[in-house]
Every structure is written in C-alpha cells, then in structure tokens.
Amino acid sequence: MQNPLERFAVTGKRALVTGGSKGIGAEAAIVLAQAGAEVAITGRDRAGLQATADQIAAAGRKCTIIEADLRTAAGPLQAAEAALAAFGAIDILINNAGVSRVASILESSLEDWEETLAVNLRAPYLLAQALAPKMIEQRGGKIVNVSSQAGVIALEDHAAYAASKGGLNMLTKVMAVEWGRYNIQVNAVAPTVILTPMGTRVWGDPIKAAPMLAKIPLGRFGQPVEVADLILFLASPASDLITGETILIDGGYTAL
Fold first, then answer.
1. pLDDT exceeding 70 applies to what percent of the chain?
2. Distances from the Cα of 184 to the Cαs of 104, 128, 242, in angstroms?
3. CA pair distance 220, 212, nearest whole angstrom
C-alpha cells in the first residue's frame, strides 16, 4: 500500500498546464513539478512562461515551454501536438487559461463574447479531445478544468464569463461520463476571487471588493497556491474515485 506522501505525489507523470505564465497556471505548474511531474506550460507571454520554467528548473524538474494562442481554433491543437511531441503522452491536463471581460450584457461586444467562449470553453474542449486518445490507450489520465464560482452562481457584469464557466462545468461532467471507463478522472475547480493579476485587476478597488468580501464567510479572497494545491490533489492518485465534480474553493461564498 502506498504511504500518504506517495498517494498525493505525481512522480513521473507528464503534465500540460495552459495559461502557465502567471497566476493559477504558474502556481499549478510549479506545485505539480514540486510533486514530481514533468511539466509543459502554454501561453502567449514568453517572458512569463520563462519565469515559470525557471522556478520549475530550480526544483530540478523538466519544463517545456509551448507558445500558443488559445483564442484561435488552431492554437489548442498546436499546443497538444507540441506536448505530445515532447512527452509522447500527457497524463495530466490542466485547462487553466482564461479571460474575463467585465461588462453588463447591454454593454458587451460580440468580440468579447466570442473571445471569452473561445479561450474558456472551446480551448479546453479541443485540448482534451486531442490528448484523451493517449490517455485512453494507456488506461489512465487526469483532467482538471479551472472553472469559477461564476459558473455556479450569477455574478453581475460577467455574462460571457459565467456562460463559459457554466459550460465548462457541464463539459467536465460529460468528459467524466464518456472517459470514466478508461480510468480517466475529469473534475473542475471553481474558485472565488483569487488574487492573480487578472483577479487584482478586476477586484483590486477596495470599494468594489467590499461587497464581495462581505459575502465570503472567511472574509478574504484566495491566493493562487491554494487553488494549485487542490489541483494537485485532483491530479494525484489520492483522488482516483472522484470524477465529474465541480469543487468550489470559495471561502464559503456559496454556503450562504
């Protein structure tokens, strides 16, 4: 029987993390590497990707940088092909890359809607579609989709974002149902406000943040590493019986 440290480890696993240049993606890549994985990271910010890769290298792990634009239909496929070329197969897929365009429904543009759905929903679909065949072949894999509490409860001025994350939650369930027979676990994590660069940009104003904080029983926003630790759990053998779930990490927001 494995000891607890082994059950929560991902030693020798090959992971692809999208949006790995900053925020939750960077933290998830680093935490997975610290737990033993060989990691590939994608994004458009070469300098940010390199900064993450440098931290992973400092932990003595391999990191592959893949520049890809997930706003396009070709970008996710290019990222998947590069990851497969580097590792042969991907054992852990972390669909983290996301965008948010904050505006009311009446003030939102079609371009914002399409970009949000492309990055937040279409890209995870295409990446999973491209990488799952190898997982099926090897009879095992982990997919973690980074969703949001906005995919579970309504949030004003987040129509496109909420629609994309709600869709991602249902996509997670369908993936879990279709691929469970191959020992592939698919789950989503749904954070509250996390103080990433994007989270700080949207919620950094104390006046705007105050009403949101008042709805969180713990009285604070989250840190990227707190989400990364949950992602590690879902990527590890310790979570092998968990699939099709959207796990909220929201300080109690949705408990009210």
1. 99
2. 38, 11, 10
3. 9
Residue 142 pLDDT class (50, 70, 90 cuts): very high
Catalytic entry in 125, 161, 182, 253: 161
> How far is Cα 238 from Cα 210, in angstroms, rounded to an integer?
37
Least Cα distance to 235 among 1, 61, 12 occurs for: 12
Report the predicted TM-score, pTM, of the whole model to 2 decimal places.
0.96
Confidence category of residue 1, pLDDT binned at 50, 70, 90: low
Q: What is d(CA 116, CA 122) in angstroms, rounded to the nearest whole number?
A: 9
Is 253 a catalytic site residue? no
Q: 145 with 168: CB under 8 angstroms?
A: yes
Q: Which of 5-9, 63-67, 120-124, 170-174 has the lowest mean pLDDT?
A: 5-9
Stretch (H or E) spanning 143: strand 141-146
Residue type (1 letter), 204: G
Which among 7, 21, 22, 10 has a CA at the least distance from the CA of 194?
22
Residue 16, SS3? strand
